[in-house]
Design brief:
Number of domains: 1
CATH architecture: 3-Layer(aba) Sandwich
Shape: globular
Order of helices and strands: EHEHEHHEHHEHHHH
CATH topology: Rossmann fold
Helix content: 40-55%
Distance between the termini: 63 Å
Strand content: 5-15%
Length: 240
């Protein structure tokens, strides 16, 4: 018996956009194989014994699913030449996940780097509710990160021109900034399922948002950071 090949798809996203949460949600759809690990991460189970191309062959070669997919960061998709060549040949459907509030995204990225260097206890991902980090951040760094994130999203849109793309925002997926839902918002889930050509089902994940707090609760020197944002192109995201 010949088993029909599943349709290929991929999540392409920047850091701290809810991509891991979306991956977990999609992996709970009965018709979708969505690799729940960071498939091409250098420390992943897959990469211990395989090249990136072999990992992608493994992901897209799963049986008995309608859609096979995984998540790739911008760096994995666009800067790793063998991966980009593989994806260009395959031309999967793309869910491009972005975050409209790049200031919150920038703060989250800086806090992640601080966590990785042991300067804050706030985790990268969590199954339980977290508390505000209350970290002092360099205002100029927050603005710089926000600019870099905006440029990265713009570049990704240019690279994906001509591909079949569904752009989904973090806020659409979870119901707004500062939310930590158990299930993806129904309208967003319906859009994703229609885009992938599978029946709608309720999809969720037990992962919790690690930083659902107001920025004034998270950033100890928020007044300084807000002043820098008000003097930049991100003034509308500076809040009250």
């Amino acid at each position: 018996m010949t088993i029909p090949r599943a349709r290929p798809a991929v999540i392409i996203t920047g850091w701290r956009t809810g991509g891991t949460w979306l991956t977990h949600c999609l992996s709970n759809h009965p018709d979708i194989f969505c690799a729940r690990a960071e498939a091409l991460h250098s420390e992943s189970l897959y990469r211990r014994w395989a090249t990136p191309a072999q990992v992608l062959d493994f992901v897209y070669g799963q049986w008995h699913y309608t859609v096979n997919m995984c998540k790739l960061t911008y760096a994995q998709a666009f800067r790793d030449r063998p991966v980009w060549e593989y994806m260009t040949r395959l031309k999967p459907a793309v869910i491009h996940l972005v975050r409209e509030d790049v200031v919150r995204q920038a703060v989250s990225m800086i806090l992640l780097k601080m966590h990785n260097s042991g300067r804050t206890a706030q985790p990268a991902h969590s199954l339980a509710e977290t508390t505000p980090a209350r970290a002092r951040l360099d205002p100029a760094m927050v603005v710089r990160y926000a600019r870099n994130l905006t440029a990265a999203d713009r570049s990704a849109r240019e690279r994906l021109a001509g591909w079949r793309v569904l752009e989904l925002t973090y806020a659409e997926m979870v119901g707004g900034e500062g939310k930590s839902p158990e299930y993806m918002q129904k309208r967003a889930a319906e859009r994703v399922c229609a885009f992938l050509g599978v029946p709608y089902v309720r999809m969720g994940s037990r992962l919790k948002a690690v930083n659902p707090f107001a920025l004034g609760e998270t950033v100890a020197n928020w007044a300084e950071v807000r002043a820098a944002l008000l003097a930049s192109e991100f003034r509308e995201l500076a809040g009250g």
